[in-house]
Amino acid sequence: MSEWKRIFDENRAIPPPNQTSRVAQGPSQAFQLLLKRLDGLHLNQAEEVRSDRYELRVSLFDNSLQRFFGRTWKSEPHEATKRNQEQPSKVHFNEVVYFHTSLCLASVVAVVELASLSPGADTSQNAVGQGFGILHLFSGQVQGEGRLSLFHGTPRALLHPTLRDPLQMNAVLSVIEGTQLLYSLQPHPALNPIMHLLPPNIMVSGHELIPGVLPPTDSTADALQRPRLLPAFSCALERVCVSLAPSIQAFEADLLERLNNERNNTKVGAEVRSVVVQERRLHVGVHNGLCWVDGPAGEWC
Predict the structure, then answer these.
(1) In the prediction, which pLDDT does 45 show?
(2) CA-to-CA distance for 170 and 162, rounded, in angstroms?
(3) pLDDT for 81 beyond 60
(4) Distance between CA 179 and CA 172 in Å, rounded?
(5) How far is the C-alpha of 93 from the C-alpha of 151, rounded, in Å?
(6) pTM surpassing 0.70?
(7) Per the domain annotation, does 280 fall within a domain?
């Protein structure tokens, strides 16, 4: 139970906007995003001494509604390298991100932020944003390689009201000259058999634990490149007992009081005098810490 709770707590996500979900049509589609290399990183001497490593952070964002959703994925820390003092630095990430979504809309983008990491006062690390880019996932050709330019500033700038208009965005945000992220985006149908184990709009790496997916057997340590399911087995729950403190009668009385007060305050359901308990059901489902593997089924009580 403690392991399940740890996975559950670490993978909480923000749902997409309702307007976006209503517009999206069709089944969920799986994708593979390869973040290869950052070119043209210019560092002064102070930054070279202070910043040991760099990481990428990727979040889904709805441009039309200015809303982040899902969960921010973070890469492993990587060191910057360069051939000589005159040339800019490079950071080789070579990390693969997997996700599936039904929100294949032009307004849905991936916001990629570059952060520098330096040792903190204790065992923690200080992270400082070094710029961000906007990766258009579903406008035009999805497959293939590309280069993503980075802007100065923080992704929080995308929440400013003046940036609703793309023309205003181009006028306000300034590009970091010469700094680009080499990436590759392509569909990943191999993820389809395990979609029921992974929530939509959640970006994960192949080395992350996905309960229900077998660990990799090759040297890549990537369990999602060719994912394999754990064998299924049957089980039975007997003599399930649910205890509600201090008693089920007191619990229901308190619940009804709260519901009726809320109904009276919001004027919803004014045609009904009061809310009453008409039936009791026990819902049992299977949850792997990330999502419902098998949704709850109700039984009369």
Answers:
(1) 45
(2) 11
(3) yes
(4) 18
(5) 19
(6) yes
(7) no
